[in-house]
Design a protein that fits this description.
single chain; alpha+beta; two-stranded antiparallel sheet; 5 helices
């Protein structure tokens, strides 16, 4: 899991300014909750290094990496799928399949 240190990138003053506005401006907060990257770029001219989303907990606001919900294609799944196909034999006496292994 990768992390992004926004304080290192933009400075503590900038982070505190954005946090103060999140707490005091409901319209900005709603915009940032919907699309943090777009809100920060529109209001502060800052480009976040990765798609991020804003979360709010009892401890305050947090910018976290956005879950893109990327799914693997069937071809990609074939490359990582494991397992073995067990040989199958038939019991000739009663016609039932018996798996070996």
């Amino acid at each position: 899991m990768s992390t992004v240190n926004l304080e290192e990138m933009f400075g503590l003053d900038t982070i505190e300014t954005v946090l103060a506005r999140l707490k005091s401006d409901p319209a900005f907060r709603a915009e940032a909750m919907a699309d943090l990257n777009a809100a920060v770029k529109a209001h502060y001219g800052l480009v976040l290094p990765q798609p991020m989303q804003l979360t709010e907990t009892d401890a305050g606001f947090h910018a976290v990496l956005k879950d893109e919900g990327v799914e693997l294609s069937d071809d990609e799944l074939d490359l990582v799928a494991g397992g073995v196909i067990a040989p199958v034999r038939f019991d000739k006496t009663n016609g039932t399949k018996l798996k070996l292994g």
